[in-house]
């Protein structure tokens, strides 16, 4: 059997080399199908990574809840520290205040228009994906800073310029800001200038102008264990302890999951399945092409195959020769498709690079190569079996008489 | 017809020794598997005298074969019985449609008989499984076809290599053997030529080199000179006879050509599916 296998491979490789035209003709359908499959897997992979990056940058990693504790009907938030302790006790792995500040910004004497400031804790870096263009994210030392500390986005950093001085203030009381980092613009910024302002003693008047505790409440970003994450259950736990830190009614407390990664992945999965189905249909068409060419060539090659048998090829050896030729043809087609895809993805990646986060590279992933070449080989195998079977059915004598 | 018949004496010198001695068992080198040094016949300029008593390589008894046409079985061969010894050259003659090629196909294990006994090289091949028949065919039998049956898109060397590839002969070894065989049939300068670049005679010489590549015990030639001119026919026949004399191979030639039949040790005539000597 080993002898038949080895001789089958050798003669099949020689046959594929010798029948270049047939090989190229057979390649076309498989090349298109495999190319489509590789591009779909690549697109799915890029899409998934982009979706993950987008979701984690703008909403949070899995699982992130937005918790709003806010009451306009007369209740008051009395103990912010107790609230934050309960946020952790209820199951949070990381907690950061996440509240829009009313503070305004100016550069020199010129106010920054359409800018918004979000008050956060350093822990937000454990909740969201922070992609820094330069500098760093907040750390513990920043909470002791005498000046408010900010991380700005690229849009705002551009406006500040090399030696511009950013100030932040409310009602004309301006404080000079220490900018420690610049985050990449995210899709959520919409081209505006934005900044994260670290909650710290130096920024307290900007965060809660009315005093140490925002009596009407505030908002938080909370990261929970994605395994079994349940925002409703989390809210219920907060509600049961709400009397420790507020006189809010339970309707004033909300918690909902905001990371869209799962939903996007679900959409991408369905999209990939749909496109993958189309690619499989294309691949099947290509496979039928190889099958057809295989059947035609087996008919044309009855004499050649009969000669092999007359010279000592066993049925198994002949089967290996014909199937291997089909597999060789298909894998060659797969490699051609892969080269096309590498080129196309390289060009496409260069064109869209400016619109993607820097941590989302556009490349052909390993699984696309495996899927592409694997499906090419499988298509060749399937397409080779029928012609091989037909070749075996032909008697040696009638084959030689062709 | 004995070996020292006038037909053998008429053969060109150096192609077939006109000895009266019947050939005996093949020397060990004749049956040595590939991987051993090249057979002496491929390199020795002069054939050695043919040794001792001839032993049967092939024996058929009561072999018969029919084909089904429109539900009706037409018997082509009836009760064929004969034996062929090692080193013997036998011509099978008969009219067209008499069953010569069918018999050759049975002897070459390309087809299966409907009944009778067929012993080849000590093995009863009647009812042998297909892969065993294929193996035996590849290892012990060489074919020379009237239509050559060369692989069209392969070079002469590649064509000669095919039986050796199927036989698991290592690459370098089979290349060397193929080159040497092609040189021995006068095609050393056409190693890289493909069949369509060769004349009919050259193609048949490539086919002959291919048939000899596994040093077969039996060579079956179906009208080997049918498509060739006189000079090429002479060359092919000389090579076949030399293989019998030097290597002890049994050679069975199906032919219509009396000149070819005359060079065999004996003839088997097929008349309406029955064999008879002479």
What's the gist of this structure?
The complex is a heterodimer of chains A (402) and B (278). By secondary structure, chain A is α+β, with helices and mostly antiparallel strands.
What does this structure look like?
Chain A: Residues 278-395 form the ABC3 transporter permease C-terminal domain. Chain A: It holds the Pfam family FtsX. Chain A: Belongs to the ABC-4 integral membrane protein family. The complex is a heterodimer of chains A (402) and B (278). Chain A is α+β, with helices and mostly antiparallel strands and 402 residues long. Chain A contains eleven helices and 13 strands. Chain A has two domains: 2-56 and 263-401, no CATH class; 60-259, no CATH class. Helix content of chain A is 52%, strand content 18%. In chain A, the strands form two sheets. Chain A has a nine-stranded mixed β-sheet. In chain A, α2 runs antiparallel to α10 (366-393). The two termini of chain A are 29 Å apart. The mean pLDDT of chain A is 84. Chain B is of the alpha/beta class and 278 residues long. Chain B has one domain (54-277): 3-Layer(aba) Sandwich (Rossmann fold). Helix content of chain B is 33%, strand content 24%. Chain B has ten helices and ten strands. In chain B, the strands form two sheets. Chain B has a six-stranded mixed β-sheet with strand order 6-7-8-3-9-10, with helices on both faces. A four-stranded antiparallel β-sheet of chain B has the order 2-1-4-5, covered by helices on one side. In chain B, a hairpin with a 2-residue loop joins β4 (115-120) and β5 (123-124). Chain B is globular. The relative contact order of chain B is 0.20. Residues 1-53 of chain B have low confidence and may be disordered. Chain A binds chain B through residues 3, 6-7, 10-11, 14, 18-19, 303-304, 306-317, 395-397, 400, and chain B through 105, 108, 110-111, 130-131, 134-135, 137-139, 143, 145, 149-154, 158, 162-163, 165-168, 210, 214.
